[in-house]
Write a structure and sequence with these properties.
The chain is of the alpha+beta class. It is about 30% helix and about 25% strand. Helix 4 crosses helix 6. It holds the Pfam family LON_substr_bdg.
């Protein structure tokens, strides 16, 4: 299945996309997100996406609207293209999204479909289409120190060889995506204006978690 190479800038991306509201799920440009789809409305969403441009938007519900049937959404999410797709014997879809670009929700469309669709703009996130942009400003040593401290504090296992080989963008974005932090922390990482700021947020949130001495149990692999 082809990648999202055809998306060179904001003008190339679909202006209306289906959105998948999921708390704690962070997709970033060029990141890989596996998803296990089983709810009927999202099975329908994937069916429709596969018939068109294979693009869906990952977005977090605002915690203030928790429990509502159609919770309020944050204004910023990330579009991804379905780059792996498999069906299971019990009716589920196993897919992988590759992040394309962040977007800002301009409006939500009234729709008869089971899932939600939004009119979105990518114009504020042109930097997302430039691979490895801003890597030279990232405090890689600070990121690795925060990771080592967190790993030691929580007795986790990591693939240090893979981490050492990863470029700065891939390292920072992967650690943000798999981090066990909360909805607001994940949203701050998503909305960071550049890679340097995203890395700084990751370091700061990790340090605060260590100070509290109650890091969530998780495994970063």
């Amino acid at each position: 299945m082809s990648t999202h190479a055809s998306y060179k800038g904001p003008a190339d991306c679909p202006a209306v996309i289906p959105v998948f509201p999921l708390s704690g799920a962070l997709l970033l440009p060029r990141g890989q997100m596996p998803l296990n789809i089983f709810e009927p409305r999202y099975l329908a969403m994937i069916d429709d996406a596969m018939r068109t441009d294979r693009v869906i938007g990952m977005i977090q519900p605002d915690p203030e609207g928790a429990g509502a049937a159609n919770p309020k959404l944050y204004r910023v999410g990330c579009a991804g293209r379905i780059t792996q797709y498999a069906e299971t014997g019990d009716g589920r879809y196993l897919i992988s999204l590759t992040g394309i670009s962040r977007f800002r929700v301009e409006s939500e469309l009234a729709s008869a479909s089971l899932y939600r669709r939004c009119h979105v703009s990518y114009d504020a996130f042109a930097v997302d289409f430039a691979p490895r942009a801003g890597e030279e400003h990232v405090d890689r040593a600070g990121v690795l120190k925060a990771l080592r401290d967190f790993v030691e504090s929580n007795d986790l296992k990591v693939d240090w060889a893979g981490i050492d080989e990863a470029p700065d963008e891939a390292l920072v974005n992967a650690l943000c995506m798999m981090s066990p932090f909360g909805v607001r922390e994940k949203q701050a990482m998503l909305e960071a204006p550049d890679l340097k700021t995203r890395a700084e947020i990751l370091i700061a949130v990790t340090q605060m978690e260590l100070v509290r001495g109650a890091g969530p149990e998780s495994t970063m692999q």
